[in-house]
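Milestone M4 deliverable, item 7.
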Amino acid sequence: MGVELDKIQKPIRKLRKILEGLPPDPTARVVHLLRTYARQLQAIVPALMPERKRKTRRLLKSLKQVRKLAGGVRDMDVLVARTLTLSHGPHDHSAAHLVEHLGAMRLERARDLCEVVNEHSKRARRSLKWLSKQIEGRFGGPDTQDRKILPEDVVQSLVIELDLWPALTPDNLHGFRIKVKKLRNVLQLAQDVDPALVKRLGKVKDRIGDWHDWHQLARIAKRVFDPHKDRAALKNIELIGTKKLEQALRAAEELRTLLFTGQTQMAATKATKKPMGPAERIHSKRIARTGRVG
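Output delivered:
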């Protein structure tokens, strides 16, 4: 699989810019981008630089810390948005109380994020600059054309993990989403990837994420709401969460069917007499390893 250099360098450039000056109360968009670019690099770097130099390992550790802290802030932004959809109607008072609580949690988490970022900003930006040069040297020159490869074993291992994932339940659905996001981040580097597959992975990611948001909101609401006065509002949140869970499970199962209907893929490949693409090669290896076709 060929890779597009700019798709690798973009998150590095953007992340360096964000880390240059994070305000004490960053906007929802800035936090979202910070988390997104950190997560992308966590997926990209191990895939393209599996040898893991000491400096690379240290950078990945820092990115993980920043991503988690940014994720905590981002969660509150999303949950506030979800709660506001309940604020026009019979649950207006309950929603306002919950938004106030989420806002206080957001402020506390944003302070923690800014403290860590500002403390390590200079060193992190230097490390990202070093990483950019490493990637440019490895994948940027004409003499490195033969090495412009996205390792297929990385993609294959992620696909196999999704294929062999246990029966999907509320307890393991979020973990499944994390693997889907990682596979999507890696595939987005490729020049020859099927855009429909990337779009489907994004849809599943969003469906599961939507359910997870309402699930988290219900957990917080149980702690914040009055069990009697706010009972109707809590019930409404739980009902929405149940509906979102059904949609998420359906989307996830459809993805697995799409990825692993091997008989259809192999028949189409044979009929057109074209070389097998990455997905077909991955599936044929899975059949050989597991003996399962569908």
